[in-house]
Amino acid sequence: MAERAGGPAGELAGRVALVAGATRGAGRAMAVELGRAGALVYVTGRTTRDRVSEVGRPTETIEQTAELVTAEGGTGVPVPTDHLQPGQVKALTERIDREQGRLDVLVNSLWGGDRLIEFDTRLWDLDLDKGLRMFRLGIDSHVITGHYALPLLIRRPGGLVVEITDGTAAFNRRYRENLCFDLTKNAPHRIAVGLAEELAEYGGTAVSLTPGFLRSEEMLDHFGVTEETWREAVAQEPHFAIAESPALIARAVRALAADPDRARWTGRSLSSGQLAKEYGFTDTDGSRPDCFGYFEDVVFGGGDGSAEDYR
Q: In whole angstroms, what is the distance from residue 85 CA to residue 94 CA?
């Protein structure tokens, strides 16, 4: 049985969080940062030390994430969960209820579909199975998780739901070059809008949140670099100069969870760079990258400037 929340020091001591999809990348970073603030964090995913998900990356597991949460001062509780299986999600939330009796923060960071994207491919030429799988991974999983987790979250006023996606609502008005991907990554914005309405009478807040150009483990491997040498990849992909570490979006979630006035954001589409400016935090290198400003002004807008001007 997991410990009850309340022991560690920090602004989120006594809070209980569920980070759904915490195996790697932004999900792992957000779980660890919530733990650093003193929260008890349930971390879920499909890759464990005994089993590898369809993503095919055995190097990151939910057990590792939970250990990192605990090492940073929180309490990490790994629960292997396939969020496309309603029975498993129901069992997860029942466990949280049994062990903690509360849920204060739900971070829906479920995805794992990057390998399915066929950019610059028309709908009639897409691999239909891949496109429909994206809907399952990026939309169905979010809805299933909310269905079972929200009755626990609304028991106390002040609950926070963070729907993680790719691209702000404004950025995603531009077509994302694959119809199934485009629909999948716009859905969390609408989920946040809808949940903002449904949670209002319970004092809850729902937002959608996106990182910028994320230096996830998978992206670093793609370019053959590490977090320490990531700038070497700029020669291959010049726009990678605006990239941010997973810590930036993690600090954004921590700031939202700790903000007593977070309800002012409810229903809105937010980005890590936007919240970094609002709350005054930075990335691990001390910079404050504004990915979407850079893309809108320079890459798509044709304006003068470089990525460094937007850090």
A: 14
